[in-house]
């Protein structure tokens, strides 16, 4: 097999990468694949504890696709066994354990979304239950003997939980070793992950050395901040964009991200480098680019037109929540909290004081105002949140 030149590959593969461990070995591995005609085996392990994929997950997937575009082989490890334990990385408590049936159902939906980005024909899918379900107990104890408790407690998440008296179950200590053992089974050359996976990925490298294998390289991508620009993208926080969302919803969410995110999202979610210096134009270009990746140019343009109509007040976002309330008189603060626009009256009051709330198209100026709810009304909070209230 013929591969592109080393520097051509590195110029793309290094884009957006936060850290490579050890960095000097990546070029050597790529050059070896060029010389031998043998593609690198690029590992990604996923525990399908939930079926939904959002843009935060796609940062690593996009890097996998770049490796594939240069001719390399992706190996997707579906953690049907590790998912039943749950990765303790970044957790302040033990994860609830899932059944194997739950994990397998999630895995099916996850793969459908995964292959919107990664090429199916250049992906080898392996389930780690194929080897862990057959592993004898003496092999388990041998695996556990490859690391000490002191090494495990070097992890910040374990340190924090131990210092705070939070329980740490022994099965959580096994998790990094299981992820590491996956690398031995598939003979991984490069393992991708977010920065929160560094401890686990490096354990794989150590085990490969013990087994006499050529050790994998850890390639770590940044954690994508959510649409609020403050916290890691998460469905539970509501600051996510899902890959299965409609073109209109996807465009709306991207167009309305925090201004501070435009540069990082452009780098991690597109291949463009020339977005406009005007922030609103840049957001539009970014939203068009991303939606076109999933749905094509025509759908992206149609979504842009709908977004324009939303901002002019002629249309509502297609994902606008609809809340039914009993007819009657409401204090405006009570109303805003009741529909879920704010968690507290204090938050609602501050937004009103900043002229950030509209009801029926009119700015709410008095936080103590009373409103009569007897027909449909539209509540707008800031530029991007809309609520349809009806009785």
Content-based structural category: alpha/beta
Strand content: 5-15%
Estimate the helix proportion, in percent: 40-55%
Mean pLDDT value: 89
Shape summary: globular
Distance between the termini: 66 Å
Query: In order across it, which strands form the biggest sheet?
Result: 1-6-5-2-3-4
Residue windows where pLDDT falls under 50 for at least 5 positions: 90-95
> How many strand elements?
13
Number of H/I helices: 17
The major beta sheet can be summarized as: 6 strands, mixed
Characterize the quaternary organization of these chains. Answer: single chain
Write down the secondary-structure element order: HEHEHEHHEHHHHHEHEHHHHEEHHEEEEE
| Radius of gyration over all CA atoms, rounded | 24 Å
Summarize the structure.
The chain has 391 residues and is of the alpha/beta class. It has helices at 6-13, 23-36, 55-69, 82-85, 100-114, 129-132, 137-144, 149-152, 156-163, 170-186, 198-210, 247-255, 262-269, 279-295, 297-311, 332-338, 345-353, and strands spanning 19-21, 41-46, 73-78, 123-127, 190-194, 217-221, 322-324, 328-331, 357-359, 362-363, 370-373, 377-381, 385-390.
Task: Outline the secondary-structure elements.
Blueprint: H1 6-13, E1 19-21, H2 23-36, E2 41-46, H3 55-69, E3 73-78, H4 82-85, H5 100-114, E4 123-127, H6 129-132, H7 137-144, H8 149-152, H9 156-163, H10 170-186, E5 190-194, H11 198-210, E6 217-221, H12 247-255, H13 262-269, H14 279-295, H15 297-311, E7 322-324, E8 328-331, H16 332-338, H17 345-353, E9 357-359, E10 362-363, E11 370-373, E12 377-381, E13 385-390
Parallel strand pairs: 2-3, 2-5, 3-4, 5-6, 7-13
Antiparallel strand pairs: 1-6, 8-11, 9-10, 9-12, 12-13
């Amino acid at each position: 097999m013929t591969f592109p030149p080393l520097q051509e590959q590195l110029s793309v593969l290094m884009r957006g990468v936060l850290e490579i461990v050890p960095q000097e070995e990546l070029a050597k591995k790529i050059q070896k694949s060029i010389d031998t005609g043998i593609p690198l085996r690029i590992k990604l392990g996923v525990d399908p504890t939930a079926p939904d994929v959002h843009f935060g997950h796609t940062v690593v997937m996009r890097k996998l696709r770049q490796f594939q575009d240069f001719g390399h082989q992706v190996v997707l490890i579906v953690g049907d066994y590790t998912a039943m334990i749950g990765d303790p990385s970044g957790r302040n408590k033990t994860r609830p354990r899932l059944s194997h049936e739950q994990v397998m159902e999630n895995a099916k939906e996850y793969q459908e979304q995964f292959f919107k980005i990664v090429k199916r024909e250049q992906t080898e899918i392996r389930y780690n239950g194929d080897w862990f379900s057959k592993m004898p107990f003496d092999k388990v104890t041998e695996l556990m003997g490859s690391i000490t408790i002191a090494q495990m407690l070097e992890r910040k998440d374990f340190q924090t939980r131990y210092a705070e008296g939070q329980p740490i179950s022994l099965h959580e200590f096994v998790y990094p070793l299981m992820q590491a053992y996956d690398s031995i089974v598939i003979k991984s050359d490069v393992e991708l992950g977010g920065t929160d996976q560094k401890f686990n990925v490096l354990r794989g490298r150590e085990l490969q050395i013990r087994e006499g294998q050529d050790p994998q390289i850890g390639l770590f991508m940044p954690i994508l901040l959510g649409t609020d620009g403050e916290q890691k993208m998460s469905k539970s926080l509501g600051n996510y964009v899902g890959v299965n969302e409609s073109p209109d919803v996807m465009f709306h969410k991207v167009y309305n991200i925090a201004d501070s995110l435009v540069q990082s999202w452009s780098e991690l979610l597109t291949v463009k480098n020339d977005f406009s210096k005007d922030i609103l134009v840049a957001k539009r270009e970014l939203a068009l680019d991303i939606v076109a990746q999933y749905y094509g140019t025509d759908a992206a343009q149609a979504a842009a037109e709908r977004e324009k109509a939303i901002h002019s007040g002629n249309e509502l976002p297609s994902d606008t929540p609809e809340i039914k309330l009993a007819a009657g008189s409401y204090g405006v603060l009570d109303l805003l909290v009741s529909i879920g626009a704010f968690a507290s009256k204090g938050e609602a009051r501050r937004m009103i004081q900043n002229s950030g709330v509209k009801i029926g198209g009119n700015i709410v100026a008095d936080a103590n105002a009373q409103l009569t709810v007897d027909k449909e009304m539209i509540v707008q909070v800031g530029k991007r949140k809309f609520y349809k209230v009806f009785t």
